[in-house]
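subagent[fold] <- orchestrator: predict structure for attached chain, return tokens only, no commentary.
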Amino acid sequence: MNEIIKAMKERRSIRKFKPDMPKKEDIDQIIEAGLYAASGKGEQAAAIIAVTKKELRNQLSSLNCKIGGWDEGFDPFYGAPVILIVLGRKDWPTHVYDGSLVMGNLMLEAHSLGLGSIWIHRAKEEFETQEYGLLLRKWALKVIGRA
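subagent[fold] -> orchestrator:
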């Protein structure tokens, strides 16, 4: 069977992650796969942010939990030690589709490396808050319509 089709059939969302940090090379390879996703007009307008610092990861988890309506203390990232955030330029007409294709590539590549993944929503809502708008400015990203 074709390896790509095999990965598509076998990949499943994981809802309980090991606390072990994946190798940097694996994270980089996963990001590279995401960057090769098809995109509107070939613009590759999506940005991928790797969150590997536990403090920031936990802040994102807490806000994601509030936005999702769960009880305080629930981890909507299911213990994943790394979060890859995919953001798109709000002014780009295909940003949702482009980001979706990036996510698919990220998850398939993680699977090919023997790593689990899950697609979690709410980055849009998180990064529209003032707190995370500040993060975008700190990272010098203008990806969702904020300066």
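orchestrator: received. Logging for downstream: The beta strands are 47-51, 83-87. The CA atoms of residues 47 and 87 lie 5 Å apart.
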